[in-house]
Design brief:
The complex is a heterodimer of chains A (249) and B (646). By secondary structure, chain A is of the alpha+beta class. Chain A has two domains: 108 residues, Ubiquitin-like (UB roll) (Roll), CATH 3.10.20.30; 133 residues, Alpha-helical ferredoxin (Fumarate Reductase Iron-sulfur Protein, Chain B, domain 2). Chain A contains eight helices and seven strands. In chain A, the strands form two sheets. Chain A has a five-stranded mixed sheet with strand order 2-1-5-3-4. In chain B, helix 3 packs parallel to helix 6 and helix 14 packs antiparallel against helix 15. Chain B is an alpha/beta fold and 646 residues long. Among the domains of chain B are: 135 residues, Flavocytochrome C3, Chain A, domain 1 (Alpha-Beta Complex); 131 residues, Up-down Bundle (Methane Monooxygenase Hydroxylase, Chain G, domain 1), CATH 1.20.58.100. Classes of the chains: A alpha+beta (249), B alpha/beta (646).
Chain lengths: 249, 646
Amino acid sequence: MNITLRVWRQKSRDVEGRMVTYEIEDVSPDMSFLEMLDVLNEKLTLQGEEPVAFDHDCREGICGACGVVIDGVAHGPETTTTCQLHMRSFSDGDVITVEPWRATAFPVVKDLVVDRGAFDRIIQAGGYISAPTGTAPDAHAMPVPKSDADRAFDAATCIGCGACVAACPNASGMLFTAAKVTHLGMLPQGQPEREARVVKMVNQHDEEEFGGCTNIGECAAVCPKGIPLDTISQLNRDLLGSLTSASSE
Amino acid sequence: MTELYIEGDPIRDEKAPEGPIQERWDKRRFSAKLVNPANRRKLSVIIVGTGLAGASAAATLGEAGYQVTSFCYQDSPRRAHSIAAQGGINAAKNYRNDGDSIYRLFYDTVKGGDFRSRESNVHRLAQVSVEIIDQCVAQGVPFAREYGGLLDNRSFGGVQVSRTFYARGQTGQQLLIGAYQALERQVAAGTVEMNTRHEMLEVIVAGGRARGIIARDMVTGEIETHFADAVVLATGGYGNVFYLSTNAMGCNVTAAWRAHRKGALFANPCYTQIHPTCIPVSGEYQSKLTLMSESLRNDGRIWVPKKGGDPRDPRDIPEEERDYYLERRYPAFGNLVPRDIASRAAKNVCDEGRGVGPGGLGVYLDFADAIKRMGRPAVEARYGNLFDMYQRITGENPYEVPMRIYPAVHYTMGGLWVDYDLQSTLPGLFVTGEANFSDHGANRLGASALMQGLADGYFVLPNTVNDYLADGPFEKLDENTPEAREASETVRARIDRLLSINGTRTVDSFHKELGQIMWDYCGMERTEEGLRKAIDRIRELRGEFWQNVRVLGSNDELNQALEKAGRVADFFELAELMCIDALHRRESCGGHFRAESQTEDGEALRDDDEFAYVAAWEFAGTGEQPVLRKEDLEYEYVEMKQRSYK
């Protein structure tokens, strides 16, 4: 099939960007979306035009590196990562608009590449359990009810791609933050730091200039890993509990 | 053949203590010099790579009080390719009471490695495996659990006990996130400085020691010089030399290769693992191959039609016209034979013209019987995410139609040579995880890569690097130190050269062609004739690359084509060494199958009299004959036997 692409081109962070239109012929429905961009880049290179920069690595939907907004939807029309989206989701003659994640907290580095360092800093603020190497008791010393382990796992599957931020009208990073708070908060090992963790992570989230969460739910709708919206309720519960217990001290 | 290489002096590991194998690791930890906690903050360590081996080492050494500087090429350390490992991690916990022990894990790993790994290293790996699970659980890794709240285990890839811990099909992700969080905790504590989107392009060797690296900031293009008292490479494997592999697109050999060029020996480069259960290639544009966990082989049955070119829908082919070739040839292990055997068997049936799918490059992996036996919900609970992934990629529903699978390059057992301390032949340069050669011999068992990565990073390196650092801090260097300046100039010159060629072919077109040569002649089956042809073609293509590659843009910006070009240039040199190594090893062992060395019924035939050694190669210059340094392997505990899975 033949596709028309409108792609965001931006030389670097401080330069203004613009949409550029390219035609691509002979696109196979079995190609992944990124393989289609590879074909475009091969063509551009041979024409002497710089290829389009985009982040990608594992190409199997788990590293979280890839992610572009396709026709206004983060990761495009299927609920999956961009690398796992295939051209069979499009039709011959389609005009497809491709843009980077847009959020103040994720400045554009080049073309479709953005800087998601803010996510790492939210984790630094408290997204961990302090367990220095070598200090651990036997793994069976503390049984974890299967339902808690499963809920922790469901939240832990977050790949940190940032689609939640790109989809949110407020550019909030709350689903990402809540996934980590829920993952660690469901486990007995995560309890000692639970109250401090949520406060520190939310503070960092706000400092990074992510927007506030107003429970719109666009984040969960595009999340390729299906992180449930109720993790945000969990975060709010933990946050409230933490702030009230801190003020009662 | 000797025209291709020179044989040099043998080499041996001086660090593994003598005595009963169970006591060697304790002995080494006791004999290693320690660094007093107050002195640790005066000592610095560079760690390149943030996969399981790198992130766990950075977190642990940072916590111990060393000044750690960590690098990764991705935008976040959480994206390193360990994240994609699906199946699980082995540990000799014997929670199943099924006869497992440290000794059995050791035994299975030595045997699985086809007697080409070091006993001392493997035993230590098995010992440490137990602590890894404890550590990960303490960090909050959400392993699969049973209703009683205890950890679940499964049997995995070629062993008869259930010792594999897992987190659905995302074990690597969960373990890596655990290590990443521990790393970020140290970043917050100020003990680790993290440099993302940085690529190591050269190692600085001064006064006979590895003292730092040259790294390129991939956003600004700045060529940076970083110094430390020790350098750790945790930079993963080199499977992308084949272009198509299950590796992430960015995985590369550059850090390891640059160290090799500066004097670190490269061991057993020809040992590559071809994973049997991957989704077959669908077209020319294919950029990578996707693996599906081989846990699928626990319940799926592998078959091809008895006669070639059978046009029928697989569901219409009656039982008696199907060949369940693994169950037929290996009745004891059936579909669970080790990876190398399963892969080659698939290649054989396809070579006989009985393959299925596009180009006849595929075999069926059928769950119809499993669905009948356990019911669809049970199959869904166990393999749901893998089935979804298969359907997303192929557009076919595996609950209804058998999956098609084909082998793909997955893991490289070879890597930089290291001693028992994980130190390379370049003093001060340590190598961990897939980047070293040490623990898997000629073939890696399933669920052992995660084990090795975390063993090296959490427990081994942090107990050996101190022995080296105890002699530091070493002389202070700066950017004007001649060795640093020279390393930096080499990097600049290479970048300038790549940007100035402005030829007519893209980097990817060269990479694809190189990959095809490697797959055809240095893949699942190798012959002397094929390897010689490959070497000639690689040299020719490398020559053309440096004349005719086209890299647009400049250095001082994010330039993905430039990054790729540098990596492919190093793959060319590695590819040649892989072929020379494969050519010189005139035996079949593990992932290395030489057609000239097989039994009458087509099984791999090892030659222990001639080849029971590690082939460690010394760099002598591009296009010059590399020097072969042999490390003899001795088996005191596990009797060397021809593997049999019949």
